[in-house]
Amino acid sequence: MTAESLARWQFGIVTVYHFFFVPITIGMSGLVAALQTMWVRTGNERYLKLTKFYGKLFLINFAIGVATGIVQEFQFGMNWSDFSRFVGDIFGAPLALEGLLAFFLESTFLGLWIFGWDRLPKRIHLACIWLASFGTVLSAYFILAANSWMQNPVGYTFNEAKNRAELTDFGAVLTNPVATVTFPHQILACYMVAGALIVAISGWHLWRIGRADLAAAAHSPAAADGDAHEDGPDALQRKTPTTDDRGTHRWALRFGAIVMLVSGLGVVISGDLQARVMTEVQPMKMAAAEALYDTAQPASFSVFTIGSLDGSRELFSIKVPYVLSFMATGDPNGRVEGIRDIQAAYEKTYGPGTYTPNIPVTYWGFRLMIGMGVAAMAVGMLTLWLTRRDRLPTAPWVRLMFVVLPFLPLLANSFGWIFTEMGRQPWVVFGLLGTASGVSPGTTVGEVATSLITFTVIYAVLAVVEVKLLLRYIVKGLPDVTPTPATDDEDEETPLSFAY
Asked: Whole-prediction pTM value?
């Protein structure tokens, strides 16, 4: 393998791994803020328990997400220095604002929120988590603006003497049509992930409570322990479920399901708008997403296509008429250009070469993104049905459903980004800089391979740490929020302590 291939693998692994944490951080920060708002407004301890319970899971995810994000930025200097030199003048502004403004909001006010329990006035403490949540969203916008410039370069001039792009209109970069449609699509997808996580966790606890009820009704104390024999004796430092736990988890499950369904509907609508913009600025990506080799009017949506191993021709396909034309143009009879015609046009514009991305990866990445998102919404609707009229889910298969659920929108997010980046190939900056031209010229295969193996091993260890921490606190269940009486020793000189 070449240094370029290894560098691409390394950037892909680091980016995809980091992106597992991003949707959870963005979505959970907003939902935790919403739960705390309900507590402040109503005084109901149910919402305080949920705030602290899911707030702790959010903090674990945030900490490891920050660590992996820092490593990701090192890639620009390590393996992609020519790319950094080319886009540095453009990327400098949004990424600087992301660090100085957005991340400042996240880290500063999240710290105040963590250590401010029972020390700050309730409403000021609540404002801290909202500001931290706003910081995560603002951070996402600046990063998406930078990435959207790679998809659709605007607001720049090309300096031939220095062989680099130079910023001329920062407003154009921030209002790039790709960024303005990608932002709501991505943020709503993040809330889908967070909603699914709440459904899965509270649903699993509710399933345990339901199984305990069945065991009690059958006068079988052994069955009341449900799955303890599977998880090991020390695993489960579980408290006995209470009536209050039942009501709290049921409310949280339905709350998460509604969030997942509403945000999922928003993802569908924003995704439709995004497809039309993509057709306009990157027609090859849309054609590759559908394995549409020949221009069609009207164009059919491919439900399932089998192509040749090299991705050059279609062998078998199941299609729905008119749907692709509507997705791409808003008109059921609209004309959609095919791969072969776009390739010929690009050769005339950019010179000889292959301008077609990896068709199987692009095609299936697009379908896995849509399929897993739709499956998550279906599970959300099923969850609402299973818990109607105070019912509890008790069937054995429901437990597996809750275990699988969070992975559906999370992987849909990841496949969406894989499709976005792979569909742009062979460009690292569309129409301006080829991916092969962005690699650091001085790196060797051995150097890239060493860093690739090192990062992969470190990330595998971090994954184990993350999962263990999350499972430990998920299994423990809702926290006790009984106020701790103040002692005579506490005064204004008492140092801040971690609230959890």
From this structure: 0.86
